[in-house]
Amino acid sequence: MGPSYGLVAFDMDGVLVDHSSSWTWVHEHFKVDNEASLVEYIEGRIDDREFMRRDVEKWLNIRDDLCISDIEEILRPVPIIPGIRETISALRAGGMRCVIVSGGLDMAARRIAEENGFDDHIANSLACDESGRLTGEGVLRVELTNKRKALERFQQRYGVTAERTVAIGNSFVDVSMFSASGLSIAFNPIDEMVERSADVVLRARDLRAVLPPILDGQPR
Predict the structure, then answer these.
(1) How far apart (Å, rounded) are the C-alpha atoms in residues 126 and 192?
(2) Distance, C-alpha 168 to centroid of its chain
């Protein structure tokens, strides 16, 4: 008999990255914040592209010659939760594909994916010119309020149904992924919406805590 689940999708910020947001990590480096833009985004007054544009503008106001490599270096020391490699190894040994679906920054997602054996990742990025300098625009690949759309691309690619998909997230923006999964796990949740929407709620300091509900569970 094959594995119960075929695909496990992980949010990155707050789940794999032991920090609220890879974007916020860069903000903190430059001693800026995006609270005003965040409120406008949540209220629907600006879209994802404008939200990213305003974030990048704040960094460029501090240093106008920023390159993509500078952002990679700023993100390099971002704290990572323990147990990622062991978790991915166990899931893949059980026949499951493992992916990252994140509205965070691709530079962090790519490194985590490559270093820990993920099958693939999708995250947002930063536009740059031929020399690598930031243009001030973001590259939208994952809509924060519609992460389900990004997850469905992986389901189609790997031929895995929603019922055989596990989604793991920590905030309200992950609820759309939960709606396209057979098992949803709120890992160190930060709001009530994600808790209410999840099949399983976990609070742990090691990612291996997600293994029992996945390996012991059966799709509904």
Answers:
(1) 31
(2) 9
Token pair in block for residue 178: 């939960």
- Give the separation between CA 146 and CA 159, rounded to whole angstroms: 20
Strand partners for 121: 100
Angle at the Cα of 123 (from 117 to 128), degrees rounded to 5? 115
Tell me the pLDDT tens digit for each residue of 135-169. Answer: 999 999 999 999 999 999 999 999 999 999 999 99
Other beta carbons within 10 Å of 114: 10
Statement to judge: residues 148 and 48 lie in one domain: no
Contact 68, 128 (CB under 8 A): yes
Are 60 and 154 in a shared domain? Answer: no
CATH number for the domain that contains residue 196: 3.40.50.1000
